[in-house]
């Protein structure tokens, strides 16, 4: 049977670092890739044929993170030397230095408008900086242990962070307050990021799990147990349909979030994989590992989904607005226990450089988007005043879940149609083979 997915393919493999590659990030135009390393250097790899890479020494200790600004005109790097550097990604490699924290700086991240960037540190704080003036703005200090990662939401109004205090926190930038906390006593998270819609956050745990949380309802949506060691990094596909994960077990895994299953396991590296990232267009992704290599892959598996499904889906759906702060409730910590759902998926067979897994989990998982075009009036308008507030809120949540299910069915219908078309095409090709054979006789 034909599949609507095509296998990812290894495109390039970059060697230049002398120690573990700690982070990778694509430029906004997809023409360059930045990598940071424990060798205290930042490298800029050019995809243009016969173009040389740029290597930037400057940090005194291991570089922990690197990221392009939204304009692509600057690259920011964080380091164990407690500084942040801002580089011009050209052959000169000029940089300015910010003495950012009193301990190791683990992460740096730009807001989508490019005006602000944040840093996360072992000094238990998150700091915000004005990019143009390169000046400190404010600190977020409610974490009680090292802060591993901090990321802006797509609209720039929220920050998600994870810490060795075993919490994932959501911060309101306007009020500079923590407005939500997810707690997991099994272990801390190494990495956290928002999905492209800004409605969910995913966390990569030292307990080898990947969790996806809905920040509107404070609920754990998906819980994947697909790695055999701690998960170091993750990256959402621009469509929001797929999630890349990198682990100490030496693999990169690709999760289909709409179907709630593992679809690929990649084995390109020799040693723990520390970072993964999709390009801004989603047609490529990169990985970096302790083997000092950077691998660049052609996505392929999004060929039908992003170009066909999303195109068809736009006829009946509209983009979902980012969550309002009033939608994020309650403000008390949300404790995750072992009673939550999990997906335990094992690869069926091994292919060259990767494994592909086509088995579906035993129960459906909720998707990550829920806005249906044509919903002009909320079903509860007009009756809320006659109902207790708790009952009204419950009914609203039920209606929201029904909207989620409606869109899920819509997307699955499109996927089924694409698969049927592909199967029909294959059958037609098979029927042509005997005809060509008889003509040649």
Describe the model:
This protein has 441 residues and is mainly β. It has two helices and 31 strands. The protein has helices spanning 303-313, 389-440, and strands at 9-15, 21-26, 32-37, 41-46, 54-57, 63-68, 75-79, 83-87, 95-99, 105-110, 116-121, 126-130, 135-140, 147-152, 158-163, 167-172, 177-184, 189-194, 200-205, 210-214, 219-224, 231-236, 242-247, 252-256, 261-266, 273-278, 284-289, 293-298, 334-336, 349-350, 354-356. It has a six-stranded antiparallel β-sheet with strand order 22-23-24-25-31-30, with no helix packed on it. Strands 14-15-16-17-29 form a five-stranded mixed β-sheet, with no helix packed on it. A four-stranded antiparallel β-sheet has the order 1-28-27-26, with no helix packed on it. A hairpin with a 5-residue loop joins strand 2 and strand 3. The radius of gyration is 23 Å and the shape is globular.
Report a brief summary of the structure.
With about 450 residues, the chain is mostly beta strands. It is about 15% helix and about 40% strand. The chain has 2 domains: about 10-335, YVTN repeat-like/Quinoprotein amine dehydrogenase (Methylamine Dehydrogenase, Chain H, 7 Propeller); about 370-430, no CATH class.
Biggest sheet architecture:
6 strands, antiparallel
- Portion in strands: 35-45%
CATH homologous superfamily heading of the largest domain: YVTN repeat-like/Quinoprotein amine dehydrogenase
Low-confidence stretches: 309-319, 326-331, 336-355, 358-386
Which CATH first-tier class of the largest domain would you pick? Mainly Beta
Span of the ends, CA to CA: 29 Å
Which outline best applies?
A: globular
